[in-house]
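Q: Convert this sequence to structure tokens.
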Amino acid sequence: MTGAGLRQVNNPSEILISQRDDMLSGVAIAATIEGLRPMLVEVQALVTQSVYGTPQRTATGFDLRRLQLLLAVLEKRGGFHFGLKDVFLNIAGGLRVEDPSIDLAVLCALLSSFEDIGISHKVCFAGEVGLSGEIRAVNRIEQRIAEAEKLGFEKIFISRYNKKGLDFTKMNIEVVPLGRVDEVYRLLF
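A:
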């Protein structure tokens, strides 16, 4: 909204991703689809030692039960101990995202905060995480990759089950196919 009335937002992804030069821990970018439009959103996580008896789990813009599920996958399949940690999760920009393709970005933001190591702001993620720790394929992957490429991202992590039928020679972005949660950790940290 401007003084002259409503103005069209040509690229909402640019508004939803903070412009930063330094690598802060606990931040990951997700390639999601809202309606028919691909968008990149910023996922923020804070993992800290619990000072009270029972660890807190808080999610804004993301399903709290889904967050608990992802934490359980990291505990069981990744060997990370979140049991005595407070976990806070936020989808920047006030959005509420229901698309399961942001699971991988949520997981990476959690790991980034847990290890206190930043993820490059030129990397994004698109993948659903299953209960056995596998990274599942998501729909309309070409649109997600194209949106990331358009915004200048250098690398996108996707499910290896999504790479079938993709022509990597026409892309100006590195596509990293993954099969399991532990592979993500080895490649990022």
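Strands lie at 27-34, 37-49, 57-60, 85-91, 123-126, 128-129, 135-136, 155-159, 174-178.
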